Each structure stands twice: as structure tokens, then as C-alpha cells.
Amino acid sequence: MAGRPVIEIDDLVVEYGRGRKVTRAVDGISLRVNEGECVGFIGANGAGKSTTIKTLMGFIFPTRGTVRVFGSEAGTVESRRRIGYLPEVALYYPFMKARELLELYGGLQGLSRSELRRKIPMLLEEVGLAGKGETLLRNFSKGMQQRLGIAQAIIADPEALIFDELSSGLDPVGKFDLRQVLLKLKSAGRTIFFSSHELTEVESLCDRVVMIHKGRIVTEATVRDLMKPLNEFGVIFEMPNGREMPPAVAAHQPECDGGRWRVTIRDPADYAAAVAALTAAGASIVSTASRTRSLEDYFISLVRSGDGTGGRGDAS
Amino acid sequence: MRAVWLIARSVLVEAVRRKEIYVIVLASLGLIGAVMTVDFFRLEGLSKFYREIALKIMGVATALTVIVLAARQLPREFEARTIYPLLAKPISRTTFLLGKLLGVMLAAGFCFTLFSAVFLAGTLYLGSGLHAGLYAQYLYLQMIQMLVLATMAFLLSLLMNLDAAITLGAVFYALSSVLMSAVSYIYDWVGAVGKVVLLALTILLPQLPLFDLSEKTVHAERVTLGGEWTWTALDAPTMAMLTAYGAVFAAVYFGLSLLLFRRKPL
Questions:
Q1: Which one of A238, A295, A306, B53 is CB 3.0 to 4.6 Å from A199, fit for a cystine?
Q2: Same domain, yes or no, for A191 and A239?
Q3: How near does any CA of chain A get to the CA of B211, in Å?
Q4: Who among B14, B89, B265 is closest to A108 (CB)?
Q5: Do A16 and A114 belong to one domain?
Q6: For A180-196, how does the pLDDT look when each residue is reduced to its tens digit (9 = 90+)?
């Protein structure tokens, strides 16, 4: 993706505390999110995800480095004009009705009364709260509050969405509904940057994944590139006598085992090409097998490896 | 300006819908009503007695409401994390705090309106006269005092925890008149350093009794039927000076609150 940068973080350091009790929550991270991208920001608890997002919103201040949103310094009114934000945990005024709350948030984003009157019922329906506009928020469950949070984040059709812990507090139906909302926003070209513990969600929604561990970015790659070394496709085949090994297969260093060949390929596209080449060469395919590790497997190995590289030894 | 109003309205909605505000208001109204039953004893000067008690209750109840409401605005927002989605909108922290202040002042106005309706009904019922000009000035200066108290409560809530802020705000309000009397009484008895400290106290702390016209309002009576009043309304320059005096304190407290709030990591 080569759109205009929406989020630009350069050498960000955030420290909490004073004197000897200083804790470095974010340790020199740099990151770009471009227009139209959907980027997942993942890491274990305490890795620095929420601190980074709070810095983006201007809730906390960088100890060092710069953070810009839509070209403006993070925290300025201008930087927040085109953003929709969902906090990690937010409770909403219990003494207000859902409609009143959305009127407040929409009004603060500059929507007129007539726009609010038109939009609020549609928005409530979109997030699965149809008919709840006149209900006091003290009667809302955690999941309902989270849905309302999503509604307030998207009420002004923001160009970029920043969600801290995307589906926190949502039941499976809520998660599904939220995914539909996000897919719709993504297809409309909105920039989405979110942290999440739901790695399947990240896998299914994101173009790119940024992994943070102990305040540092350890992996930044497209989901496809990240998943490539995690997959394994095995083929056992027999080559007709006198036929040369097709280059698409030879490249993956097949091993001969009692007249049968065995090859392991990581890239799905390479795997497809190898099978096609073998078929064209008249090889007899005895068996195929695939072993796909999930992003979650990778994430767990990353966190447990200690060095934050998940045993891959790189941080590309 | 619309953002300030929207935030202020949410404060007012909270003040109106939360039960503790009604407890203060209803208890005070009950007390005012109880004073009127004294009529059965045919006491002399009942209307004056009624005016005095009612105005005192009105001032104290509204001040307590304002201190509690103002002091808890920011700590509650931090605690419940309701501040995050609000400050994620394109509004500055200055706008946010101004909205909170306006909301508290609207709540104070709501309390005074409620009390005034009861007070005036009682006055009418007792058939006693009331100097309308003085009463209007009393209400106006009370609102100036509420502005000072609200900004002070904001500042205290940013310097200490909620309970301490409410307690200190209420204690200062309750002891303000005593404190100032004590300062003037002991001034001649202390040494040079003590004099500087007392002088600093007199200058740095707002003298809330200056905003209290209740005594004049209570004792203002016509000398003869349809004739002159025993007490007249304050002249314009005095009112302007009192307004400026309150505005300076409110501006200083608000400015310091803003300074702390703008630097506060959330």
C-alpha cells in the first residue's frame, strides 16, 4: 500500500514514573500506517500496545520521539478531527440514554442535529442495538456498551479508525457483527489500526500485522508474508524413469526415499506450481499433506521465545 | 461554543438525574417548609425569620451541591474512563474543562431557580415584602460565589483525591467567614512574619462573605407603607468590583486547573 501516511510514529519512547521507578513502556518504536490500510497491532499484555495507542490519541505524552496523525502532532484537535476511536475499556455515562450519548459524541464531531436525528437510528441498528436508543446506559451490559462504543467511534464517518482491544467484551455474535462492520469500512477505503488479542480476527481482517514485545516492534509484515514460513505443504511423488525433476520442485530440494521423492514447500503459490509441474512431467503423486500454523501459534512462540523473534531469528 | 454547551448539558443531565442532588434539594426544601410552620406559634417577625433561614439554607445547599458536583467531575471521568471517548473527539482539554464549568454553573442555576420558586412562594404566602433589587443582587453574587467555589473544587480535585477535595472545599466554604474574622482579630497580635502570612492569606483566599447579601435582603423593609427601604440595593460600581473580585479568583483557579489538567497523562 502506498497511500498517504495516516499514522507516523518515529522513535517513540514512553516512560512512566520518576527517578529510579521509571518504567519504559514503549522503547523506540517507529511505525507507518498508510491511507486505506488495515493494520493489526498485536502483543502480549504489557507489551506497549495501549500505551502506543494512547499516545496516538494524545492521552499520554511521548518521552521522546514524534507521533503524527494525518500530518498533525498527536493530541491536537486537528489530529483527532478525522479519527474514530474505541478505547480498551470504556464505560459510558450511566445516567444517559444511548441516543443522548450518541448525540453528545456526534455533536462534538460537528454533526448537525438533523444529521444526528437521521444517523443515530441507522447506527444503532448497524451495531445491533436497534430500539435501544431510549434505554439508560446503566441498564446496558458490557457487550452492549462495547457495541455503543463502536457506534460512537464511527458516527461521523471518520477516515481512520483506531481501536484499542477491538472485540473486548463482545460475545461471539458481537464479534461477528463487528467484523462485518469493519469489513464494510475496510471496503469503503477507511484506514483501520487496531490492537487485539483475537488473532484470528487479525488474520482475517488485516493487510499488515505489527507485533510489539516488551515495548519494541519485533515483526512488521503483511499477513501473507508472515504466514508464509509458518505453513508447510508436503508432497510424496514418483518420477517416471529418465525424466528430469521439474525446476519448480527441484528448487525446494526434494529428498529421495526408496524410489519415492519427498518435498516440503512453504509458500502456497510455490506448492501449487510444484504440483502443476509434477503433473505436467507425468509424475505420480502418492500423497500430499499440509500443516498450517496459525498466527496465534506464531504469536505464542514469539512471546515464549524471550528474544521476541519467535525463534525465527529475524524481525523483518 | 457548541462543544462547550454539549459537555455542559451532560453535566446538567447528570446533576438532574442523580438522586443525591435531589436529596440535598428536597431536604433543604423540607427545612424551608418547616420554618413556615412556625407561623402557628404567632411569633413576632416570622417573615424575617423565614427569609433568614430560607436564604441561608438556599446558599449552603447550593454551595455544597456545587462543591460536590465540581470536585467529582474530573476524578469520576478518570475513574470510569468516560474521558477517553470524549477527549478522542476534536475538542481541546480547555473546551472540555470549560464545558464542565458551565455545566456546574447551570446546575447551580437550576438549584437557585428551584429554591427561589419555593422561597418566593413562601414570602408571598406570609405576605411579607421583599426588596426585589436586593434579592436579584443576592442571587447574582451567589452565582459569582458558586463560580469561585466550582473552580476551586476543580483545582482541589486535580491536586488531591476526591474525598479530600470535597472535604477541603466544604470546610473552606463553612469556615470562610470565621477565618476572615479570625485573621483581622489576631493580626495585631502576631509578629512581622505572622503579619505577612495573614496578609497573604487575606489576599490569596477569596473572602466569600463579600458575596453574601442575605442579611441585607432579610432586613430590608419599608420604613413606611410604600416608602423608602431600610436597605437599598448596591450601586453599580460596587457590584462591578465584586464581580471583578470573584472573576479574578475564578480565572486564577481555572487557569491553574487547566495547567494541571493539560499536562495530566490519562
A1: A295
A2: no
A3: 33
A4: B89
A5: yes
A6: 888 888 888 899 998 88
